[in-house]
Amino acid sequence: MQHRPGTDAKIGVVNGFRGIAILMVVLHHLFVPYAAKDPLHTGQLDPDGIFAAFIANAWLGVPLFFVLSGFVLYLPYRLGRRKVESLADVRLFYLHRAHRLLPLYYLVVLVSLTLHAQTGVGSLRWYLEAGGLFSTLFVFSPHGFMPPSNVVLWSVGVEIWFSLLFPVLILAIRRWGIGTIVVATLAASSIFIFIGGSIPIANVGSFRPFTSGIFGSCYQFVLGMLVCDLYVRQLEKLKRPTSSLPSLLAGLVLGVLGLYLSHHASWLAVRVLGGMLFSIAFSLFLFGSLFAGGLLRSLLDNRPLQLLGCMCYSIYAWHGIVMNNMIPPDTSMLADTMRLLAPFTVLILALSALSYRYIEFGHRRDWKALFLLGKAEVQPQLASATLPLTNEWRASQGETM
């Protein structure tokens, strides 16, 4: 593929969405007890209020991460910068992904088991949980796919399994085209989600390895790959779309419809459709945002939000541990959580910054660029496509959370 100027850089809109996604997830975990109809926390937030409704649905930041991961992981391959043409290419990809994801993941696993294991070392439940965490297979957890010592790690496991599937998807796209793969993945994931949702599990509700694992989540990553493909096609035309408004409006309408169906539909199949519509809606909104200007652009690619997006993997990995120590799940008063919110924020940002610098990117010398403090290079723009680009693409290409 011919080199296109300006595509070496990190896309600010994607980092901005990552920042929004991590804020959603952290706020959800902090405040969802007060938004739920839980006797321990009842009456502290109006369950029918706007804030409670937002908090109850803020877990949807995780599907946003999955779509964004598919986009960013596929981008260097779609641009032709990387290839999957031999076993050596596959091996190099796996080494890159293992180096990127596993050091931080396993460090957090060890800390989680040390501080928050539900039973003592040597018990059967301890071995089951430890085995699930180290293997990223959480099917033996009594909490249903959510490891009890650190429930947030389930989605990192899904990211790891998608990384294992990624070379296969690249080859499948080359053979049958991305449209066929998107349709096939949507169909397969919907079947797994429906089957998992039809299996009642005590104290959990459904069989989450199917509804929440890679079986039911793979389509979200593939939707991100589709957005990437459309984005690069647009770059190759050397012009921006005449308007991003249709994609943005379609995403907004489908998102509202998807949320309504997933919460209020009587039939499981329709609720499954609603959940998938939400991810499709975000994919449309992401595509429109990549070419948007004005207020939306300025909101998404501002540096503080981008920096949260850059550090989102570390923030995500550590926030559960810090929250469980500073704000235990049995904290019954909203006022206590609000009082501890400021020190929690300072501590998680400091810990995540150290983790981001020395664990995620300890091999990078230019720490200022990692924190977006270096003077940004002015990248040549593609015709009239005013793309939000910055100077650290190599630090983010192929990255997830």
From TrEMBL:
Chain segments annotated as coiled-coil in the UniProt record: none
Gene Ontology MF annotations: acyltransferase activity
- Transmembrane stretches, start-end: 12-31, 51-75, 104-128, 151-173, 180-202, 214-232, 244-262, 268-292, 304-321, 341-359
Domain Acyltransferase: where? 14-352
Keywords assigned: Acyltransferase, Membrane, Transferase, Transmembrane, Transmembrane helix
The record's InterPro entries line, in alphabetical order, gives: Acyl_transf_3_dom, Acyltransferase_3
Signal peptide boundaries: none
State what protein this is by name. Acyltransferase
